[in-house]
Amino acid sequence: MDISLLNVIKLLLALLAIIVLLVLNSVVMVWLERKAAGFVQRRPGPYVVGPHGLLQTVADSVKLLAKQIVLPGSSDRLLFLSAPVLAMFPMFLIFLVIPYGPWLTGLEVNLGLLLILAFTGLETLAVIAGGWASNNKYSLIGAARCVSQSVAYEIPLILALLALAFMCGSLDLTVITEAQSGWVWRWNIFRQPLAFFIFVITCFGETNRAPFDLPEGESELTGGYHTEYSGMGFALFFMAEYTSMMLVSFLAAVLFFGGSNGPFINGFWWTFLKMGLFMTFMIWVRWTFPRVRFDQLLNINWKWLLPLGLLNLWVTAVVLKLF
Amino acid sequence: MASPDPGKLSEPRARQAGGLIEPARAAVHPPLVNLRPVNYVFDLGRAMSIWPMTFGLACCAIEMMSASMARWDLARFGAEVFRPSARQADLMLVAGTVVKKFAPLVRRLYEQMPAPKFVLAMGNCAISGGPFKFEGNYSVLEGVDQILPVDVYVPGCPPRPEALLEGIFAIQKKLTGHRFWPQPAPVEDPAFGAAPAAVQEGESR
């Protein structure tokens, strides 16, 4: 990629659009999550702040903005303050490479999938930095859980996505999208159902969402890794959670649901629609399933997902070699 | 009543908890931007998202839980986010009997909360010791306002969930100066006598 003025302007515009997208996503999704929780539990949810509680998240953000930030006396000051920023920072780069539409990509790279998998690991680093710097036993246990969970779930995730990369012959997300063009049965969810199954389960593990939200399991760890964070530090961790939710939803849309290819009139709206539906699915799962135990979580991973992923990869390789 | 400084809503009554511990003070910091409209917007935001702490001491906590469930749904007013960590909570709902052994912990939890923070004493035990207030009482703190600056008192044994909702509205009113929701008409049921008195607001100085 040449560094011309036009490209730099394009990159800056893309970054700006991504920041707006991430903030809007958090505002809308927190509201949707609370409404969905209300729907599942047969109550209205946020209702009176704005029409149907639409301004609820705005009020929350205003409050969190004006809240005192407590620095625990025994904390590592620099690490404590930088961890929430570190949680949000890699996201901007990741969202640059996602192909939203045929012409809508921030930065075209031919190793997009690899880049995304590499940079999602940085969020784990932010969590362990926050947990360590808080100097609180609950934070530290939460951070340790987050690391062991993320490391464990990254392996089946990569195995599942590797099978896709085998089939499409590329790590370029645009190429993978184009390989699914045509009609709906060309989508990877129908050609790689097992990979999709593994991907969905690992999504919850990677984003620390219920039923795998053990790093912040409040019944045993008060608040998990963000126990000591108040105000905007907590808000940034919260935003990072919703951003990583959006990231895996975009990945699901692009890798398994054909990205911008729809049944008719292809365009970026299909990517966003599929992303929204997958996020709604994640919220639905959160309010439906109870939290698992930590040994169960790791057993699901090492005893089931890992062999299944290896099997899927092996079968894909054999089929690709034979036909 | 617009209060420019919500941290200063109320100070603890300078009563001593039987020489047990010192009363806590609300951490008051002068706001960075001290402009009336800005403060009003912030107060509005605070009033519309009062996150209570997951913290219950006795049977009043059952009513607190039922207020957050389907029938009375605290979530309508943005107050259903019960935060387990004191660092993220705005409201301490003292729901139940505070025994003297637990009083230092209650005060420590209060002091762990970041600055604009409110206390709602729920139920007669938290207000005055309730049925435990008698000659020779050695174990129960007679009113949580001996150790904390209480903003709103919600009487009842236990108070009904509606009363708790009214208490939260009273905090909203203290913050922004007006009540946002319609006043329910008093029910006059001969079987239950006259309607209970409205929630009393705490002393604000």
Beta-strand content of chain B: 5-15%
- Sheet bearing the most strands of chain B, described? 4 strands, mixed
Q: Could you spell the SSE succession of chain A in H and E letters?
A: HHHHHHHHHHHH
CATH class category of chain B = Alpha Beta
Shape of chain A: globular
The quaternary organization reads as heterodimer
**Distance separating the two termini of chain B:** 12 Å
| Topology, number of strands of chain A | 0
- What's the pLDDT, averaged over the residues of chain A? 86
Specify the number of helices of chain A. Answer: 12
Beta strand count of chain B: 4
* C-alpha-based Rg of chain A, rounded: 20 Å
Number of domains of chain A: 1
Q: What gross morphology of chain B would you assign?
A: globular
Overall structural class of chain A, as computed from helix and strand content, comes to: mainly alpha
Task: Please give a structural write-up.
The complex is a heterodimer of chains A (323) and B (205). In chain A, 69% of the residues lie in helices and 0% in strands. Chain A has 323 residues and is mainly α. Chain A has one domain (74-322). In chain A, helix 1 (5-40) crosses helix 3, helix 1 crosses helix 10 (231-255) and helix 4 (112-133) runs antiparallel to helix 5 (137-168). The model of chain A has no long low-confidence stretch (mean pLDDT 86). In chain B, helix 1 (36-48) packs antiparallel against helix 5 (161-176) and helix 2 (60-68) packs across helix 5. Chain B has helices at residues 36-48, 60-68, 103-112, 124-128, 161-176, and strands at 91-95, 118-122, 152-154, 200-201. In chain B, 26% of the residues lie in helices and 7% in strands. With 205 residues, chain B is an alpha/beta fold. Chain B has a 4-stranded mixed β-sheet with strand order 1-2-3-4. Chain A binds chain B through residues 34, 37-38, 41-49, 53, 55-56, 58-63, 65-70, 218, 222-223, 226-231, 234, and chain B through 27, 29, 31, 41-42, 44-46, 48-49, 54, 69-71, 73, 75-78, 80-81, 83-85, 87-88, 90, 112, 114-116, 180-181.
